[in-house]
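Archive entry. Fields below.
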Amino acid sequence: MQTNFTPEQLSNARIAEAESILRRCVHCGLCTATCPTYVLLGDERDSPRGRIYLIKDMLEDNAPASKEVQHHLDRCLSCLSCMSTCPSGVDYMHLIDLARAYVEQTASRPFKERLVRRLLAGILPYPERFRFAIRLAPLGRPWTKMLRRFGFEQLAAMIDLAPAVLPPSPKFEGPGTAATEDERRARVIMLAGCAQQVLRPGINDSTIRLLARRGVDVVVASGSGCCGALTYHLGDEAGAIEFAKRNVDAWTKELAKGPVDAIISNASGCGTTIKDYGHMLKREPEYAARAARISALARDVSEFLGAYELGPPKRWSSLRVAYHPACSLQHGQRIKEQPRDLLSKAGYSVVDIPESHICCGSAGTYNIMQPEIAGALRDRKSKNIKRIKPDLVAAGNIGCISQLSGQVDVPVVHTVELLDWAYGGPVPRGLEPLARFVSNVPEPKQRRAEDFIHA
Amino acid sequence: MSDVQRPGADWELQFVIAGCVEKRLPIEIVGSGSKRAIGRPVDGVVTITTASLRGISLYEPNELVMSARAGTPLSQIEAELAARGQMLPFEPIDLGPTTGGPQGSQTIGAVFATNMSGARRVLYGAARDHLLGVRGVNGRAELFQAGGRVMKNVTGYDITRGLTGSWGTLAALTEVTFKVIPWPETSVTIIYLGLPDNLAIELLSAAMMMPVEVSGAVHLPAPVAARLNHPGLKTLNKSITALRLENFASAVAGRKQRLKETLKVYGKALELEHRETLEFWNELRRLSVMPHNRQTLLWRISTKATTAPKLVSAIKRYMPAEAYYDWGGSLIWLEVPSAADAGTAEIRRVTAIHGGHAMLIRAEPAVRAAVEVFQPLSPPLERLTRGLKAAFDPAGILNPGRMYANL
Amino acid sequence: MTLSRMPEPDRAVLDRRDSIVKDLEALIGVDGVISEEEGRRAFEADALTAYRQAPLAVALPRSTEDVSKILRYCNQNGVRVVPRGAGTSLCGGALPTADSIVIGTSRMNRVIETDFINRTITVECGITNLAITDAVSAEGFFYAPDPSSQLACTVGGNVAMNSGGAHCLKYGVTTNNVLGLKMVLVDGEIVEIGGAYPDSEGYDFLALVVGSEGQFGIVTEATLKIVPKPESARPVMLGFSSCEAAGQCVAAIIGSGIIPVAIEYMDRPAIAVCEAYAKAGYPLDVEALLIVEVEGYEDETTRLLRDIVDIARSFDPQVIEASTSAEHSARIWKGRKAAFGAMGRISDYYCMDGTIPLARLPEVLSRIAQICAEHRLKVANVFHAGDGNLHPLILYNANDQDESNRAELAGAEILKLCVAVGGCLTGEHGVGIEKRDLMEVQFSPSDLAVQMRIKSVFDPGWLLNPGKVFPLSVLEASGERPAADQAA
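PREDICTED_STRUCTURE:
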């Protein structure tokens, strides 16, 4: 597509980057068909192609972002479904990130929105603060109606999303190393994450058990924390870069201690961001090289396990599992088959959800910032899930799990929780009623040499 | 009898029409004249026949395309195609015999001008679907061309197809270019006996929902089946429901088994092998089961297949009728007793209720002049129809009144 | 690439913009009208981005009645209207004028009725082509026309352009698969043409409306044929060392009595680009690659592929590779279907759409290469060989004005060549703005006059999709002078 930037504009490295992305778009429009917001709203401005156009105009004009541009860019889920569809390889992810940062720098937001964004950025990345906030949520619950009436839909959505009961803390929060009892075959760093360990601590526990059982040492590095995705997608680029640097520092130290086979994340939204550290920090001379190394080592847990022999499952089940591919996994990291294959190999019968390429509406903090669209997508997804009548739903991202829990009549769990269960772990939280459909695979009696040699 | 003009070249036709335009003389345009007894009678002062515009101007078997002057007899076209193992996909029906005219004399121009398709339409589509390009002269005496000789062509509006089924009221065609297909290696007809209309249509629909490419799907109730020439079939005294498969031999064999397996609940099937299949469908192509008869009228009703039996039985409440179902049931040939109004009121009302359209094919000229022969149009469609007529023929001299009075 | 000029906008309409927007908002609601500068600009182009013009406003109706209200209003007020489906036109079919209202049908995307027994489906026209097949595939059916943009393009757009696709060699194009339409005429009147039964009544208005490029009215609903899906469909790839051999092979296959569902052709540059994108396993060292697909029951496709390979052998193919599985077939098609987009990875491109008689293929291909070389441009060829529908992709740099102009000139020469050898300007993309000024190459003044008069029947004021299909000079010289122009 033709662009109109002046040489001065192009001397700015960011504009130059945007320009090179824009030039690839041929405006063919295929992306519109798989964009959740376009499918729902039928408005070009809420499609990737339309947004690309809005971004192009905004950057070319070199003017502050208008309310309208801000509005339509805010409505983008960053699900990256468009990138899976785009035949021309337009790097929409980096374009929208760049544009969001531009919008935050050049345009203001009303007080209400700033308040919500501050709250989210100040709470979610910090497990202690988040736990505290969830304990406070019941106090807010009677007031949600009133909040909505006064235009604080987003605050109301936050309160609605908070779980009623806070699960117990995880068994292992780190920092430290969960050492395998088996013969050691690999050493990985695990991103312990932020919101996930509060909302569903079982995921980290399952991941560690699953890996450690098969000879993998799992390290949670001291000093590592939130990956930065949350702040990044709220447009706070500087804040995100701080988070990224902290993790790069922490993990580089671990790398120095001994060989690391992978940096594992079990929340695919975070994984997508870690894989992008190399890009995020490429203009930071001190970090660029190290960040690139970290990104190269980053693996989603299903990606790592997919290349790793887990052996025969310990339990047998006939559970019908609807696999919900998180957008960050299927579009962001292009991991489509491995989670399904792992679940199948573990003995579950896996079924695909119609329209599986369409986002469930969670999308980080999107379900708080854009409750209306997120709700419509959640309902659409729930309807599609109900159509195939599964016993439970598995997903690789905590955001989707929170978004869909309680909406689909059946439990929603993380893929690794199911895997851990199949390979000998405890019943995942919420699946207790299904436990009776799962039985242990009879272990052949261990025979010793004497049994065969009748002396 | 009016003055008959036989132009032998495009410019001659243009010249004749120009003369008529000047003098505002109404023209009746005919090919061989085999369909003169269909439609409303035209009171032409001048008759123009395209019969002298003859000859095949282009035939590329490897591109499946042929061009012919409009007055070329269909029989000549088909012989030429058959010599290269090809055919017209839509199996044009011959209404000559049923309307008391000659058999096998129609011209290729008339086939397209009236959009006459036969049984194979269920698989390959109608005549209009295979027309690629035309040349012609409109009522302004302008020689024009539309479309071309290639399969895919969206350059400008699709006037080519727009002229099909216009019965010479918009333009006199001088040349047509159309798509052809190879003859199948072999064919078979599978016949089920004694089914009532509704079950028969159900069977035909079930067959056409399968990917076996049924290329003919007809149902002949017992009294109609008795009119067949086929010595075996006419004496069975049972209704006949027939399906045709055409393909290479092994595919026909395999598909036949699949069909019979799926349809076994409808009873035991008879089979006609290749030669008999050709005869059977050729007979239907001449509409032999609806022979010429001055005591009766013939209607042609297009509707949804599944509503066809209901539509027929609704009409039977008002008058005796014999029906023959083609195109899987979506085309009904309906024979009813002669009447001054041709049963128009009832037949049109019933057709309107069930959805579709009806055309009176055979009736005495006085009847055809008195009633609406073609399906009356909704007000907006009628407005467009008049506009289109005026765009091509502002003086209203081409086949005036043939389709609709005052048009 | 802006050699074709657009009609002068109507100043009076431009001046009344605010009141027109307000009126439209009153008619279909505030959320259905886009009037801000940035928003309008998002609609300034379709997939032919060389031409751009933001409209006066955009309306996004939700129903036939909404469309009717808007059209009645625009007709009464002399406002031009540009219909738009998904905006995937490659010929600028949805290019607005500055004084026009774009009516986007993207919000009208419901399936109204499916009737498997009679094998029809009725849909709103904003539904995507692929969504129709998705709606019926569980029952074993599909909707046959499959333009490469089928994922995104709408049925309304398909009807307007009479779209084709790779598989129309067997199943025909849009016009062969439409049974009925509901359309809003320019004065707001709603007309139904045809229906779920064969042959529409009276004149064949379906034929006229399909392919009328949105200039006759706005189609809001369509009743379409659906076809039972064959048990299997399998492609074979045939690679040749010359385009002559490939062309002769195509003719021989069709002449043999086999009608494959598709015969696709790619030349060396196109193969390289598609392979890089799709990893389809295309051979990289051949000059021409044919993808020939047959379908039917498993045993039949095996036999047909064997026959085709036998025919191909006499043209000395370098590569013969039949698909071995459903995934393999999908991969082979993925590369072909994404060809245009994949080309976008390496360069801007200008996509041609001429059709030629098959026998002239080798000669035309070498002339195309020559023309592009003369204009110092690269070209890649991807096309539907079975029906002679060529898609030369002329590669150029959109940010280089001189190169853009050269691309447009080369394109025009290629299309003139197609007409000269007995073909046509456009096989499936439509005339739009892109090929408008070439219409005189294919049609005489009286041919064009016949067409323009039909336009006047449907749209006496020439308000619908202005500036497309007919060269402005021809239009202005004719008696069919648009009323809006006269007013201006």
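CURATOR_NOTE: Residues 304 and 310 of chain C are 10 Å apart (CA to CA).
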